[in-house]
Amino acid sequence: MATDKRSGADRRKQTGINLRLLTGNGNRTAIRRRGDQNGIFLVDRYSPVLFVTIVGTLFLCVIDALFTLFLLDHGAYESNPVMACLLGLGPYAFFIPKYGLTVLVICGLFLFKAVVVPRFHVSTHTLIYFSAWIYAAVVAWELYLITCVI
Q1: pLDDT over 70 percentage in the chain
Q2: Whose CA is closest to 102, among 141, 59, 61?
Q3: Tens digit of pLDDT for each residue in 21-70?
Q4: The pLDDT of residue 51
Q5: Confidence (pLDDT) at 33
Q6: What separation in angstroms does the CA of 57 have from each of 46, 115, 146?
Q7: How confident is the model at residue 108 (pLDDT cuts 50, 70, 90)?
Q8: Who contacts 83 (Cβ-Cβ below 8 Å, separation ≥6)?
Q9: Burial of 7 (0-12, 13-18, 19+ CB in 10 A)
Q10: DSSP 114
Q11: How far apart are CA 60 and CA 91, in angstroms?
């Protein structure tokens, strides 16, 4: 005799952040159903590689800001007009928005890790890895410029 223990409410229809996300007790690591691929889908578990990538990206953001300030002290100029304006207000006015925007974007991509951008068929967690590579390339370029200055 089979009994149906379902309550009748489909939990997949719920919107918002699942509280299990905050406790680490969830089981969802990826999109499993084809119907879920068309909407915003939040997962419960994340890979350690993704965590290291996020921490590395934030670290590279700080290194990028410090190298930029060093290069500016040695005759370079900031080509980004927004950052150049912030540099005119001081180093903290440059660093805080730069780091804050990076944290905001990375956290947004992290929360919506399983969302696929339909136009490009790219998932947002791929954009996290891409941003880490971009920051690594920028820091490598700044290291090259620093060796030219010294």
Answers
A1: 65
A2: 61
A3: 555 555 555 555 555 555 555 555 667 888 899 999 999 999 999 999 99
A4: 85
A5: 56
A6: 16, 20, 21
A7: confident
A8: 94, 98
A9: exposed
A10: T
A11: 17
Tokens found for residue 122 = 């790219």
Cα–Cα distance for residue pair 146/150, rounded to 1 Å:
6
Domain count, the chain: 1
Structure tokens at 124: 């947002």
Q: What's the pTM?
A: 0.68
Is 112 inside any structural domain?
yes
Neighbouring CB atoms inside 10 A of 106's CB total 20
Mean pLDDT of all residues belonging to the chain: 78
In a domain, 128, yes or no: yes
For 65, the token pair is: 């800001």
17 within domain boundaries: no
| Domain with 131 in it | 46-149
Q: Is residue 113 part of a domain?
A: yes
* Tokens 């005759």, residue located: 75
